[in-house]
């Protein structure tokens, strides 16, 4: 009985987090604030989208459209990393990032693919600095310059986080890139 109750509580907690992030991703009136003082950085996400699209245009590429589904996947991953003190593309359970993203951004048609960029800094991170960090890393730069991507979801949170963050105030950012046709 206790095991079943714990499973129900975990599911309810996860669904509440998803609902809060979906509301925020859809432009809801409230910023996401987690139970541990984790706050969604609503202002950073559109600034970063504009910076990425400016960079892509300067390199002859089309802009990326904001995807609500990818934004939910990115937001949940940033939230998970803040709550559990890790920084990896893999999910908390060790599964590869594409499985996590595919749950929110399922295949439609014959063409489907996703990519992911992560960044964190203490205490804060702005769009310019995030872009600089990614441009200094060849795989992350490749994601930014890939003509394959059509959509993007961004999830940024600020928290006092343990684990790899050593109890510091950090800003954690996930960018999920996608194409499905």
Plain-language structure description:
The protein is α+β, with helices and mostly antiparallel strands. It has 6 helices and 5 strands. The protein has helices at 2-25, 44-58, 68-84, 97-104, 127-135, 138-145, and strands spanning 39-40, 65-66, 112-121, 151-161, 168-180. Strands 1, 2, 3, 4 and 5 form a 5-stranded mixed β-sheet that branches.
Shape: globular
Average pLDDT number: 85
Strand content: 15-25%
Task: Output the helix-strand order.
Answer: HEHEHHEHHEE
Classify the helix fraction into a percent range.
40-55%
Alpha-carbon distance between the two ends: 45 Å
Radius of gyration: 16 Å
Short description:
The protein is built from 6 helices and 5 strands; from the N terminus they run αβαβααβααββ. The protein is an alpha+beta fold and 181 residues long.
Could you give the topology of this structure?
Elements: H1 2-25, E1 39-40, H2 44-58, E2 65-66, H3 68-84, H4 97-104, E3 112-121, H5 127-135, H6 138-145, E4 151-161, E5 168-180
Parallel strand pairs: 2-4
Antiparallel strand pairs: 1-4, 3-5, 4-5
Helix pairs in contact: 1-3, 2-5, 3-4
């Amino acid at each position: 009985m206790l095991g079943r109750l714990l499973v129900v509580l975990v599911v309810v907690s996860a669904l509440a987090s998803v609902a809060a992030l979906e509301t925020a991703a859809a432009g809801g009136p409230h910023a996401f604030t987690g139970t541990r003082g984790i706050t969604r950085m609503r202002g950073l996400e559109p600034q970063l989208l504009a910076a990425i699209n400016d960079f892509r245009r300067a390199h002859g590429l089309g802009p990326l459209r904001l995807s609500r589904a990818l934004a939910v996947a990115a937001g949940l991953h940033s939230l998970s990393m803040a709550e559990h003190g890790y920084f990896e593309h893999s999910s908390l359970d060790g599964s590869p990032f594409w499985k996590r993203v595919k749950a929110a951004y399922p295949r439609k048609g014959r063409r489907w693919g996703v990519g992911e960029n992560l960044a964190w800094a203490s205490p804060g991170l702005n769009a310019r600095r995030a872009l600089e960090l990614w441009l200094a890393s060849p795989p992350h730069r490749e994601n930014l310059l890939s003509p394959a991507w059509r959509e993007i979801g961004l999830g940024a949170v600020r928290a006092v986080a343990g684990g790899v963050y050593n109890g510091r105030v950090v800003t954690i950012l996930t960018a999920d890139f996608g194409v499905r046709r």
